[in-house]
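Risk register update: the risk of archive-format incompatibility is retired. Evidence:
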Amino acid sequence: MAIYAYKRTPGMVDQVLILEDGDASRVPAGYTIERTEPGKVQVHVPVIRIGYWGWSWEFCLSFPSDSTRRAFRRLFESLPDDVQHSLCFAPRNGKARLDFWLDKLSAIQNPGLRVEIESVLRASLDKGGTVQ
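Archived output:
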């Protein structure tokens, strides 16, 4: 019988120990022991979701203020995951991307923020900020 033992440390990845010989005396102190049938060992791997914002072209833009950047980031993160993922790649047509964002900007209630974000997007396209 195999022994699966694990040690949990807050803020750290779990440490896993698998002993095929079933000798529980070899498990170090501090590990929780769970006996399992041979071939039935499960190892849980933590998945950390970091999101897509930091991988997008929009992340690299220079916004006039932190509040403008935060408002645009909230808008970006409100999109479905598949849309966020698709925005991680450089667009082939900057105009299409601008049109996409102009449509989405209506969700921002503050008209001043909308104007600031639109001007940042337009200025970056004027500088060749996307793949044409």
